[in-house]
Predict the 3D structure of the following.
Amino acid sequence: MLDTEKLISKGIEAPGHDKLEAKMILNHKEAFKFIRENEAIFKELDLSKIEEVHKILIKDLNVNFGLRQKAVGVTGSIYRLLDNIHQIKEAIDNLCKVINKMDSPYAKSMIVLLGLSYIQPFEDGNKRNSRLMANAILLAHDHSPLSYRSVDENEYREAVLVFYELNSIIPFKKIFIEQYVFATNNYSVK
């Protein structure tokens, strides 16, 4: 954790750590900065905004930009992802339409987080992108972003798998609410 903070705040890489991991962390920082500098545009979502954040996340990581054109899988799951770029685009467009009609920023945030994770529109970086888009919505509506740093990794993964395989949001909603309480007690928006 301290190595990550040093990298983010001072740009100092920890000895013995993977260069790729450092690049991913710095890209994440830049994507978050982009969101903060352009908060207002995230009150409404569309594919171009989702792709713009993803483009920043994957910079110099040897990941193809744009919607994926090949099948990918979810390790440890029976869930099978869409494998056709036209279906993926349609799914993203439908997700954005549903989210844009919603009133609650919290509901929008949770649905984009789960929806993008479910669709997995990109070759890589989908979970990072979905968490950033969820925070973009919260920030656009003057709410604290969520970090998920206090969540057990296995609990988070299990809640996502329950959504993928059973289409139940209940375990993830519990995590989301807990993280929102944590964020409001620990972070300031402005």
